C-alpha cells in the first residue's frame, strides 16, 4: 500500500511524457484534395525568436507537419548585437540542412513589417539578397 502513491505518480509522468511525444494535430483530407499540415510563420534567433532553426525543424517533425516556412523579420532584428545577419537566407539554410532526408517541406520566406495598413505580411518562396 505504501507504494501506491509513487506508482500513480510514475504512471502520470509516463502518460504526460507520451502525450508530449505525440503532438500531431490530425487534419482530415477533403474529398478530392490532399490536406497538408503547415506552419507558414516561424521565427528563430535570426530575427525575434528564441531557438535555432534546427529546433524548429525538430518541432515540426515531432508535430508531424508536412511543411514549414522560415519567415524571419527583414527589419526587426533584436538579436543583431549577438548574431550579425549578413545573409537573410541563413535561417532557411540551417533549417534545410537540419532536415536531412525527412519529407518535411521547408519553404524560404520573410516577414515584412510596415505601418498600418498593411502591417505585417509574410512572403514565402523567396530568395533574399545578401545584406
List keywords for this structure.
3 helices; globular; 4 strands; 131 residues; disordered N terminus; alpha/beta; 4-stranded mixed sheet; TIM Barrel
Task: Give a structural overview.
- The protein has 131 residues and is α/β, with parallel strands linked by helices.
- The chain has a single domain, classed as TIM Barrel (Alpha-Beta Barrel).
- Helix content is 29%, strand content 20%.
- It has a four-stranded mixed beta sheet with strand order 1-2-3-4.
- Helix 3 links the parallel strand 2 and strand 3.
- Helix 2 packs across helix 3.
- It is globular, with a radius of gyration of 19 Å.
- The N terminus is likely disordered.
SSE topology sketch:
Elements: H1 4-21, E1 38-42, H2 53-62, E2 67-73, H3 90-99, E3 105-113, E4 120-124
Parallel strand pairs: 1-2, 2-3
Antiparallel strand pairs: 3-4
Helix pairs in contact: 2-3
**Low-pLDDT ranges:** 1-16
Question: Major sheet: order of its strands?
Answer: 1-2-3-4
Second-tier CATH architecture = Alpha-Beta Barrel
The count of domains is 1
Taken as a percent bin, the fraction of beta residues is 15-25%
Q: Total strand count, please?
A: 4
Share in helix: 25-40%
The name of the CATH superfamily reads Metal-dependent hydrolases
- Summed over residues and divided by their number, the pLDDT gives a mean of 82
What is the molecular shape? globular
Radius of gyration: 19 Å
CATH level-3 fold name: TIM Barrel
Terminus-to-terminus distance: 67 Å
Q: Topology as H/E string?
A: HEHEHEE
Per DSSP, the total helix count is 3
Structural class: alpha/beta
Amino acid at each position: 500500500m505504501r507504494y501506491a502513491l509513487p506508482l500513480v505518480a510514475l504512471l502520470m509522468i509516463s502518460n504526460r511524457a507520451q502525450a508530449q511525444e505525440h503532438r500531431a494535430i490530425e487534419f482530415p483530407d477533403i474529398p478530392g484534395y490532399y490536406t497538408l499540415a503547415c506552419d507558414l510563420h516561424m521565427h528563430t534567433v535570426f530575427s525575434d525568436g528564441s531557438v535555432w532553426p534546427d529546433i524548429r525543424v525538430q518541432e515540426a517533425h515531432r508535430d508531424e507537419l508536412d511543411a514549414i516556412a522560415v519567415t524571419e523579420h527583414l527589419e526587426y532584428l533584436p538579436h543583431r548585437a549577438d548574431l550579425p545577419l549578413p545573409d537573410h537566407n541563413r535561417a532557411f539554410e540551417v533549417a534545410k540542412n537540419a532536415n536531412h532526408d525527412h519529407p518535411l517541406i521547408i519553404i524560404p520566406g520573410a516577414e515584412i513589417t510596415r505601418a498600418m495598413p498593411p502591417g505585417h505580411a509574410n512572403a514565402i518562396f523567396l530568395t533574399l539578397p545578401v545584406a
